[in-house]
Design a protein that fits this description.
291 residues, 5-stranded mixed β-sheet, 8 helices, 15 strands, binds 1-O-pyrophosphono-5-O-phosphono-alpha-D-ribofuranose, binds zinc ion
């Protein structure tokens, strides 16, 4: 039976905003598995791990109850469910905002204007806290899905829902009004398994791999040749993780310089290096960095 087969389990979103990034992250950790949205679980061939593909809304409870040992899910859902889970890592993808959106022609201008209005949401707990903090008395209409339709069906006046690109709100004649919560994907674990001597070693192995792939994200490895007299100038230019590696070459006037550079400053750095006398600059992608 799946529940008692003794293998570790990680729950990910079956189909939605987090699915592709979650699968890619697990693959970047060297895990080999087939992933089909139709099947509930995919066993890893080369790690003691099964991947459970379920509705993201169910992930915090699955992990809290120990049905899954770990999970990848949005902070927004953990907060709404108030789940007793341990957050091991923020993952840097799945960024979105829980926002109150209002109809295009709404007269609402400030938060106080929400007083007396009906706000449709699948996040009643977070919304109630937000309203309380802002001292606004509004009616929270708890919905189970398709929240963006609520104003046009006159079920609610405004909505509180996740906004990522903003397309869903716009297509339904709504405009974002204010942010209630910012969220991104996190890796969570059941608190008890972190103390489980049998499971802990595998969790640690997986954590190291995850951290390595996250650390490498957005970084490139640079290699170049440089005249010896340019070394100090080049060292100033390189925003390396640590100091760059400098290796002597057969030609005593030249050295090879290796360094890690972030993607966003990469072209600037390249141009400066060239001006400083670097030649034969080679750039390669990095898969993982183990510190
Ligand atoms: C959220 C939200 C909207 C959509 C907004 O759904 O409920 O439908 O994303 O994205 P957009 O601003 O890019 O249009 P989610 O991915 O959480 O799926 P779910 O509600 O089915 O769980
Ligand atoms: Zn969901």
């Amino acid at each position: 039976m799946l529940a008692t087969n003794g293998r570790m389990k990680i729950a990910i979103q079956r189909s939605g905003r987090l699915t592709d990034d979650s699968v890619n992250l697990l693959r970047a950790c060297g895990l080999s598995f087939e992933f089909q949205k139709q099947s509930l679980y995919s066993p890893c061939r080369n790690f003691n791990l099964d991947i459970l593909a379920i509705r993201d809304d169910d992930i915090p409870e699955y992990v809290q109850d120990g049905v899954a040992d770990m999970g990848i899910v949005g902070e927004n859902i953990i907060r709404e469910r108030n789940a007793k889970v341990e957050v091991l890592e923020t993952l840097g993808f799945g960024g979105c905002r829980l926002m109150i959106s209002i109809p295009q022609r709404s007269p609402i201008r400030k938060i106080a204007d929400l007083r007396g209005s009906r706000i449709g949401t699948t996040y009643p707990n977070i919304l109630k806290t937000f309203l309380k903090t802002n001292k606004v008395k509004a009616e929270v209409i708890e919905l189970s899905g398709s929240v963006e339709l609520a104003p046009s069906l006159d079920v609610a006046d405004t909505i509180c829902d996740l906004v990522s690109t903003g397309t869903t709100a716009k297509m339904n004649g709504l405009k974002p009004f204010c942010t209630v919560l910012e969220s991104q994907a996190v890796l969570i674990a059941n608190p008890a398994i972190l103390r489980d001597k049998k499971k802990k070693p595998d969790i640690d192995r997986l954590s190291i791999r995850l951290k390595g792939s996250l650390e490498a994200r957005g970084k490139r490895y640079l290699m170049m040749n440089a005249p010896v007299q340019s070394i100090s100038r080049i060292k100033e230019i390189l925003p390396s993780l640590k100091s760059p590696t400098i290796v002597p070459l057969a030609d005593p006037n030249l050295v090879a310089v290796h360094s890690v550079v972030a993607e966003d400053v990469f072209w600037d750095v390249m141009e400066k290096l060239k001006k400083a006398g670097a030649t034969g600059i080679i750039v390669v992608p990095i898969e993982t960095i183990i510190q």
